[in-house]
Amino acid sequence: MRQKSTNYITFECLSRSANEAFARGAVACFAAQLDPTLEELGDIKTAVSEAVTNAIVHAYPDTLGRIVVKAQILEGGVLEITVRDWGRGIQDVEKAREPLFTTGGEERSGMGFTIMESFMDKLTVRSQPGKGTKVTMRRRVQPRGRGR
Amino acid sequence: MEMRYRAENRLLTISLAGELDHHAAKGLMDSIDRCMEQNLPARTLLDLGGVTFMDSSGIAVVMRAKRRMDALSGSLAVVNIPKQASRVLETAGLDRYVDMLV
Prior knowledge:
Strand order of the largest sheet of chain B: 1-2-3-4-5
Mean pLDDT of chain B: 96
Oligomer: heterodimer
Order of helices and strands of chain B: EEHEHEHE
CATH class of chain B: Alpha Beta
Largest sheet of chain A: 5 strands, antiparallel
Number of domains of chain B: 1
Shape of chain A: globular
CATH architecture of chain A: 2-Layer Sandwich
Number of helices of chain B: 3
Distance between the termini of chain A: 26 Å
Order of helices and strands of chain A: EHHEEHHEE
Helix content of chain B: 40-55%
Number of strands of chain A: 5
Distance between the termini of chain B: 21 Å
CATH architecture of chain B: 2-Layer Sandwich
CATH class of chain A: Alpha Beta
Largest interface: A-B, 26 and 22 residues
Radius of gyration of chain B: 12 Å
Low-confidence stretches of chain A: none
Number of strands of chain B: 5
Radius of gyration of chain A: 15 Å
């Protein structure tokens, strides 16, 4: 379902691993206006880190490429994050989403999508081999008390 | 990411501080490997007390450390696990393979 966005940020970065911290930090700063708990913020940062790392490691294994991250606040306090790349794409999305499946060797755990799925309310992955991947995640931030 | 270690009577304690992501993990894995090779511990404690953020890259680091200790016929425990890191490790079900002491 399309929902109206009340606010958003977009940024583009190069697929360098040094940008993982920047991406999760930037989204966390933006999400702060929803007044999340530390735990909610931790979940959001972790999910962004996984999505951006996937793009860096798997979309552009031998090259540097563009990654575009968009974070938006939808009505009802829902944070939607999309991470888009124009890299290699995923052959079999179902398989990639299985726990412990990885093509990244001993350095990766194969738990990225599992963590995105468990830490967010909803995860959508659209990918076309040779064209790129778009990961969309949603998480509702619970309203807290008065003064919001 | 900062790593410190202390070795005493074949007990190796490796303490990590900072953010453990994919950017930090590669160098860290090499450092942990080297540290274990130099000290040949019978038991290693991986102290995450100073870790301010960890994603699934941390799972790969712990699994690698576990395999290295298995190869040395030793044991590994992860200790002082902050809440955010513990959520990641639990989601992976890592407590089935590795001793986790809070």
